[in-house]
Amino acid sequence: MIRSVLFLFVGLALSTDVALAQNTELPAIEKVRNYLPHMTRPEVEDLLTRSDMVLIPVASLEQHGTHLPIGTDYLNGVERAKLVGLRADILVAPILLPGQSPYHMGFAGTVTLPSTLIQEVYVEAAKSLMQHGFKRFLFLNAHGGNAAITTFIVDRINQETGGIAVDLGRVVGPFTVRTASRDQPSPSEPMFDRHGGTPETSASLYLIPNLVDISAAYAADVTLPPHMEAMLPAVVAGDPTALAVFLAEGLKDEATGKGTSAAEMTPTGVWGVRNPAEATLERGRASTESFVDAAVAFISRWNELRPPGTGR
User: Fold this and answer.
1) Number of folded domains in the chain?
2) CA–CA separation, 169 vs 29, rounded Å?
3) Strands of 91-92's sheet, edge to edge?
4) Relative to the CA of 52, which of 17, 147, 222, 304 has its CA 20 to 30 Å away?
């Protein structure tokens, strides 16, 4: 009798502890399969029996206007990576939140790191995963300012380690053409619409809707240096040379003297003249699904060309 009462008391105490744990002020964390921060060691070991591939998002922690969170690039990149990881059955391993964003430092909340430090962190992280048996690495760049850094990370892994790496954004193009059968709705009138604009806002409405305050979105009064203003029509029209020249000067650290840091060009932090409130969840869904389909198709083809466990 005493033992039964004791067991009942212990059971009630444990149930109370669980109930209290489930009623904190924070929302419950739901486990995502193949997502490294959520996995146990045995789960990682089990995944290694099926795949030696890792998907690593490369992101940033920077201002995104008045309506999107500071972590937009990181969060959207990680969510896209999770979708790819679940479909392709590969490991998803976020490593670092900040990226290279000195041109956003005029707005509160931005965190920027030197390019040399960023690439060193990712290369060393890849070496750690190689030690456990992972061999192939996909890097998903979720922030335009990290493009050169991502290229360098991939090259260093290929040149300096036993790992094999690719920049996912550079290889999905042909697969996007084959798999993107759905329409991607977008505004019909061409307008300058980049950082924090309708593409990022649409993706965020689909991937991180609870963090988007669309009521706070409004069109920015963007000011460009005169020579950049003059080339803007060609940029908007899709002239690749004009875009390359435009981006070579646009969004650069205030210390460069170019007059193109975010705070020098836009009062809201959005680099574009279209109202971000024109973004739609449907557009975000279409662009995300197109990317995920293409990424999974590339991974499938890579597995055909080099099955897991082959090579040295």
Assistant:
1) 1
2) 29
3) 91-92, 53-58, 136-141, 164-167
4) 147
| Torsion angle, alpha carbons of 78, 200, 144, 65, to 10 | -110
- CA-based R_g, the chain, Å: 22
Identify the domain containing residue 138 by its residue range: 30-184+286-305
How many of the other CB atoms lie within 10 Å of CB of 191?
A: 15
Q: Is residue 258 part of a domain?
A: no
Is residue 211 domain-resident?
Answer: no
Q: Where are the beta strands (DSSP E) in the chain?
A: 53-58, 91-92, 136-141, 164-167
Q: Give the number of other Cβ atoms within 10 Å of residue 306's Cβ.
A: 15
Interval 10-52: pLDDT, tens:
455 555 555 555 678 899 999 999 999 999 999 999 999 999 9
Does residue 242 belong to any structural domain of this protein? no
What are residue 66's DSSP bridge partners? 64
CA distances (Å), 110 to each of 67, 99, 121, in order?
15, 10, 19
Query: So what's the pLDDT on residue 11?
Result: 55
The residue to which tokens 């009064």 are assigned:
221
In a domain, 219, yes or no: no
Structure confidence by residue, pLDDT tens digits, 245-259: 999 999 999 999 999
Give me 88's structure tokens: 């392709």
